[in-house]
Amino acid sequence: MRSENKPTLYWSLLKYKHWNFYIASTSKGLVFVGSQDKPFEELSEWANKRFPGSTLVEDGGKLEPYTVEITEYLDGKRQTFTVPFDYNGTPFQMAVWNALCEIPYGQTKSYSDIANDINKPAAVRAVGTAIGANPVLITVPCHRVVGKNGALTGYRGGLEMKTKLLDLERQGSSSNK
Q1: What proportion of the chain, given as a percentage, has pLDDT over 90?
Q2: Active site residues
Q3: Which residue of 104, 116, 119, 142 is 20 to 30 Å from 125, comparing CA positions?
């Protein structure tokens, strides 16, 4: 195995108001945003699957640009992210994740909307699976995807986290009008 397949993963615990979750990056960009109040094992198990053999190094300084933007978002002061990402997936997953990034702040789409956006209207279940594999919660806004009837559906971070993020955006988008 070539050494570039084993990048160092830098991580930090982001704590802001009532939010607590782990984030991680490589030297190229953000690779992981964890679930609210989940233990470090969520990050370490994910890293072992996605980056076997990589070293995890705690480094708040390296993660500061990401922490700043995510904190601004949680504070209602940021609607889009400018930090680099270093996520990898199948071409299908990448298409789904890119479609998620097109959903405007404060709005939602259904799984079938996303399937249509990527020209795979029959792939609604596969879209759901790809969304579930999104490694960077919040920044790739999978919380903006809801069931066809508007019901909140599964979310890696848990439905409570999804609800808080959607409420935060609804408040933010209404105060900007």
Answers
A1: 86
A2: 142
A3: 104
